[in-house]
């Protein structure tokens, strides 16, 4: 079973990981911007 899980994780395309990383980074930056200076974000 462990080998199956490893094969599945390898089959995930790198583009999808990069896209998720970019989305998460963008959300974090937006939250930080709103937290630091709410009026500037609007």
Can you lay out the helices and strands and say which pair or pack?
Layout: H1 2-11, H2 14-36, H3 38-41
Transmembrane segments: 17-35
Keywords: Membrane, Transmembrane, Transmembrane helix
Can you give a write-up of this model?
Keywords: Membrane, Transmembrane, Transmembrane helix. The chain crosses the membrane at residues 17-35. By secondary structure, the protein is mostly helical. It has one domain. It has three helices and no strands. It has helices at 2-11, 14-36, 38-41. The protein starts with a helix and ends with a helix. The relative contact order is 0.09.
Report the radius of gyration as a whole number of Å: 17 Å
Classify the secondary structure makeup into a structural class: mainly alpha
Mean pLDDT: 76
The helix fraction, in percent, is over 70%
Spans of at least 5 consecutive residues with low confidence: none
Number of domains: 1
Global geometry: rod-shaped
Number of DSSP E strands? 0
Strand content bin: under 5%
Keywords: Membrane, Transmembrane, Transmembrane helix
Transmembrane segments: 17-35
